[in-house]
Amino acid sequence: MINYDHIMVRFGELNTKGKNKKEFIRTLYLNIKNALKDFANLSIEMQYDHIYIGLNDSPYEPVLERLQDVSGIYALSLVYRCEKDVNIIKESALALIKEEEGKTFKVKVKRGDKSFPLISDEITRIVAGHILRNSPELKVDVHNPDILLSIEVRQEAAYIFTKTVLGAGGYPLGVGGKTMHMLSGGIDSPVAAYLMMKRGVSIECIHFASPPYTQAGVIYKLEDLLKVLNKYQSRIRLHIVPFTKIQEAIYDNAPESYCITLMRRMMFRLADALAKRRNCPVISSGESIGQVASQTLQSMHVINAVTNTPVIRPLATTDKTEIIKISRKIGTYDISIRPYEDCCTIFTPKAPKTMPHMDEVEEFEKKFDYETLIKEALNNIEVKIITPEEEKEELL
Amino acid sequence: MPTDKIIYLDNAATSKVDQEVLDSFNQISLKYYANPSSIHHLGQEANRLLEKSREQILKLLSLSHHDVIFTSGATEANNLALKGYAYANRNRGNHLITTATEHPSVLNTLKKLEEEGFNLTILPVNEKGQIEVNSISSAIRDDTILISVMAVNNETGAINPIKEIGEIIKKYPKIAFHVDMVQTIGKVDVPLENVDMLSIAGHKIHGLLGSGVLIKEKKIILKPLLNGGGQENNLRSGTNTLALSASFAKALRIAIEHQKENYKHVKSLADYLLNYLKDNPDKYVINSSCKDNPYIVNFSLKKHKASVVVEALSNRNIMVSSLSACHSKGEDYSYVVYAMNKDMCLAHNTIRVSFSYENTLEEVETLTKELTSIIKEIKQ
């Protein structure tokens, strides 16, 4: 029996990135290294267009599982590395294919090392012939094979593989810069955060707390959500903004139906100021068109008018069922549905404005000095750094 | 000659609480005394510790799609699993399957369900005390909804083929598979892949009496036995005893973290005792034939009365069991040993020695010496 000894990491859209490619790969390499730091025996090699993880006899399943959460990886193959000798290649290929289930196969050869004396076609014929002679139960099917045996002959060695799984796709985390992400604790905002990270953008999170109207348990919930997202970004900064005074002022100065609109405008002002302070060129949120009153296009227009900073809404056109599907997949759903109120669900007006008017909104805002309140809130932000390291709980 | 120190060899009945576990229990009782369901921050902190305990338990067992329900122990966990499942799923079928050597908290619960109209099949075990995998497959009917098989027998230590049974049951989506793992966790490895529900007690792994869990696959639907405030996901009402729950999680961690080294140590103790028993075939018959579980050594006396020998050992400060403590007051023979070898005389005169990592070789040496001298002294 012969064992796969490496995992080959293939890059996705990086191949379109021209001169930045080197930097992208470097970032991906560091992200992979960080993601695998708990595995003791692995070696990581960076090559021009692949990264190779040497397993050194550790089981591959947990490594593969971990790597599937790293953005910027197109596909992962479990490979056997051997000497670039056609006899060794064909024997290894035979041994590997015998471990597979299936009746038909196809051999696919890629010859990266052009100095190798045999061309791809010749290698294919030699290997396929050898397999056919030695495993009579296997037949060739070039259109729909049960087993696709791939061979890559490269500068440093030959690689043989049959198993390939898709990676997370997107770009390596960090190459896309940083966003100030609005995190409520509901179902949508963690999913939106995940999609941003998948696209290579690292996140800082801003949350608005209105104690005593909102409960301390919400913060635990956020910490748990971010711990799940630590799979994609191992260190996440969470800014908790005290929002009570602003919220009370809004309710004192505007009719109930307009409160949500005003509240969202204040939140964007705060997010914008914090984004500037933390060098985030964009703001992102989990808003989805039409989902609630503040997310109609007219509402978005009136709310968004407080800032020039681009606001990215990865879920803008996504249906709720689809959002729930993603949140289940990434593991945030069960935490998101814990029953806590956030700023947006307390004092819910009976009939919130779905078509707010800009002039009216501005009229209400003139009635109180929100700028001072915003400054005060910004000066009293509580910061938490969320990392996957469990605080050691002595009691347990 | 009686020894001064107590030699405790009845760990399958209950084990001495670990000092660290007791410390946690005390600290939590004094610090996190709020109701975990209260929304004030002390309550929320208590709740957080409670949820962390659940997470830790699942992580230690490498389970992910499961719920942890804290109970007062394994008897309650078994009752909740069996009655809860049978009542909630009666519309799917009426037939339950178990084995002849289950713990009374399983066997009697299922018999109670039988009185209430369920059909119950109790499968026999082989001479090694194990259930045969194919007897499970042939017992399954169209209306079978629940199968309960213990992983390790509490009297003989016999290990059942849980993995293989699980693979069979998996083919029947209607049937839930419950496993009593009380004598298993932290002691011997039993794969949990195809197990739908499992029961564990804290006090068998140096945790506190009164603590235990039922762990179930999320998709399993149960009818609660206790109604009230809806705690434990509505499956076990009553204010959660956080200090017990959290100290259970701690006991489990300690047991699993030290499982390998403890196993090695206990194996050396069991081997010593087994060699002694084998050297005296005229006096003893070894009932526990499972070489993979050193924690329980069960043997029968050929010519002497077990209760007399247990009493004589007790007078010498050595604690062993004649019957499983769980039913020593009722029947006077071991139905487990009888189910294995069908010999009433041997079933009447069984002795169970059950080890813990705390026992020493000297203690086992003392046991064998005392046994020899007692057997010599007392009447046949």
Describe this structure in words.
The complex is a heterodimer of chains A (396) and B (380). Chain A is α/β, with parallel strands linked by helices and 396 residues long. Chain A folds into 2 domains: 6-169, VC0802-like (2-Layer Sandwich); 178-386, HUPs (Rossmann fold), CATH 3.40.50. Chain A has 13 helices and 14 strands. The relative contact order of chain A is 0.12. The mean pLDDT of chain A is 91. With 380 residues, chain B is α/β, with parallel strands linked by helices. Chain B has 2 domains: 7-16 and 258-369, Alpha-Beta Complex (Aspartate Aminotransferase, domain 1); 19-257, Aspartate Aminotransferase, domain 2. Chain B is built from 13 helices and 12 strands. In chain B, the strands form 3 sheets. A 7-stranded mixed beta sheet of chain B has the order 2-8-7-6-5-3-4, sandwiched between helices. A 3-stranded antiparallel beta sheet of chain B has the order 9-10-12. In chain B, strands 1-11 form a two-stranded parallel ribbon. In chain B, helix 4 (104-115) links the parallel strand 3 and strand 4 (119-123). Chain B is globular, with a radius of gyration of 21 Å. The model of chain B has no long low-confidence stretch (mean pLDDT 92). Chains A and B meet through loops of A and helix 1, helix 2 and helix 8 of B.
